[in-house]
Amino acid sequence: MDGTVHLSSMIHGMLAAGVWQDRRGANLLDGGCPYYGTYETADGGHMAVGALEPRFYAEFLRLLGVEDQAGAHADVTRWPALRARVTARFASRTREEWTAVFDGSDACVAPVLSLREAPHHPHLAARSTFTGHGGITQPAPAPRFSATPTTIRTGPARPGADTDDVARDWDVPRLLSPPPNPQ
C-alpha cells in the first residue's frame, strides 16, 4: 500500500495546486483527456494514445486526419467533441491499419497488445523484455544490468502446486493433501 500511495505523489501535488479535479475522468491523465487514452478500432482491437506535448499532438492529429482540431489541445470545453472525432476515426480502420499509419511517427500512438501478442512485438523482443522457461513465456527480470545478468530459475507457480509445502511451513495441516488422519 505504501508504495502505491508513493506512486501517486504527482497527482496529490497537482490536486494541491488546483490543477487536478478529485473525480475520475475529468483530468489529463485519468481518461478525461481525449489525446491520452485508448480507442477501439474497426476490428475490436484498441490503440493507445499519449500525445500530451504539442508537437506529438500535432503529429497525432495530422496522421489521424483531424488537423482542424489543433485548438482543442488546451481547451477543455472542446474535449468532448474532440473525443467524438477521434473515436469515430479510430473506429474506421483496423488496429493493424492504424498501427501502419502511426508506425515510425512521433505521434505517441501504439497498438494495445494482448498478453500473448506482447512478447512478439519487435520493440519488446529486441529489448528481451520477455523470457521463456519450461515452455512458458513470462516477463524477464527487471531491471537488467549488463554487469549482473539475471536468469529465471523456475517457471511461474501453478495454482495448488506448492500447497503442501506452504501448509507445512505455515503449520496449517488441514490444507495438506491428503489431510493428516485425526488421532
Automatic annotation (TrEMBL):
A GO molecular-function descriptor: catalytic activity
Region feature Disordered, mapped onto this chain: 127-183
Annotated InterPro entries: CoA-transferase_III (IPR050509), CoA-Trfase_fam_III (IPR003673), CoA-Trfase_III_dom3_sf (IPR044855), CoA-Trfase_III_dom_1_sf (IPR023606)
This protein's name: CoA transferase
Organism field: Streptomyces haneummycinicus
